[in-house]
Amino acid sequence: MFTQGIKSPILISLKRKFLFMFLNNKKPVASIYISNISEDVWPFISAISDSQTKVFEIEENARLADRDLFTNADEENLLLILPSAPEPDFVNYYFNVFGKRQMQILVPKIHTGEICEDILKDQTIISQINQTASLSQKLEIISYSTSSQFLHLVKELKEKFSNITTPEAPEEEDAWTVNFFGSKSGIRQLAQQSGTHEPDFKMAEGLICMGIEDAAKIAANMYVNEDGVVIKTNKGHSGAGVLIFRPGDLPREYTSCVVTILDQFTKESYWNKFPIIIEKYIQTNISIGGGFPNVEFKILKNGRIEFLFFGGMRVTKEGVYKGMDIGNDSLSDRIAARIVDTGFYLAENLLKEGFRGHFDVDFIAAKNGELYVTESNVRRTGATHVYYSSLALFGKNFMHETYSLSNNLYQITTENINWNFRKLYQALESILFNKSTNEGLVIVGVNLLTQGRFGYIIFGKTKRRSLEIEAKMEHLLKHVTI
Question: How large is the C-alpha radius of gyration of the chain?
Fold first, then answer.
């Protein structure tokens, strides 16, 4: 159970301002942002066999949500609903970086992972939403993902208020686009259909199947013949639901290989519940965006397609996403033009089918010179907060003004320190973002410090400068004396 609301002198309640404007016949436009990371992959989380692993996944997603302060760096008149309360000192730090905002933060009394359902059961939050809606000219409700739980919440609220809009979500009849195009099987089907229209929209050789027995046989056959294979569940999360077998990882004898892969499948029930995608293992060319280029877009409610940024993803050997390199020099002009063109092609297909909101396209750069699409995340992403923070600090031309490095889950190796935001701030104070130089590190997530992890964005005038600041950060954390 978490504390209701955040008490801090710098947090300004919306109520007084709204009432003043209401009495002066100037109703404001207000926004609600709901951080519902777990809901994006709720069927997958629900299918995790081990109860402790399931709880860990839900709690990690909840503790990642304090970065959504930075996702809303450009918002005013905001009611921010998070699954886990951020540290008050951390909130004050956020306001010092971006300036004071008309913002109120609320946290449901009970956290189950389905935050939109938790909101509906929390009368304090529902009362605050009702009050905000009644005092607003228009109330925009935005979320990390357009989940079924989010659509249910919006439907309930729209029955009470006619001024509620969802600028970053498809209409209910078009919401299928989120799970279809955001799944490994859905994006593969689009790639297969698009060969003649968009030849650059290609994926690694592979197929979709159901059932672990057949999947193990197909994957073993590919491994024996290709000396590598990648196996994915239809919609995993942060590396979970992905098996990467490189040369030497599995037996080269077919039957033994089948048995070994089948043993991996039986450890988690989700392999038997969703489509399984089996792909050829691609050796990456790390000189191109670290091997994993990425591009993000947004489709507005009026149908306008906006390119937001491109860069290279920071991905572990196990396939876990950590963060991004973003900047005009993060990719060559040729690669950037190609992935942006592919992104626009997907945007046009999403637009035609009724999707609205953020989405990205992930790629893998192969040593053979090819560029393959790996998946699309049809929601806000693990770098959307970097985009909005960059926009707030540097303006629309940020891709040319700064080079950013981000990490959402940096592991501190220093032992015997009970980390909190204040200790982290003191340790890194010498390299924190400086508004006069427009360089430095911005702390963007601290609720995972109980596990020795935190999130950051580093801004530098060049890639080299950003890497220097990151190296300094690592040195400071290894030799901390507080």
Answer: 23
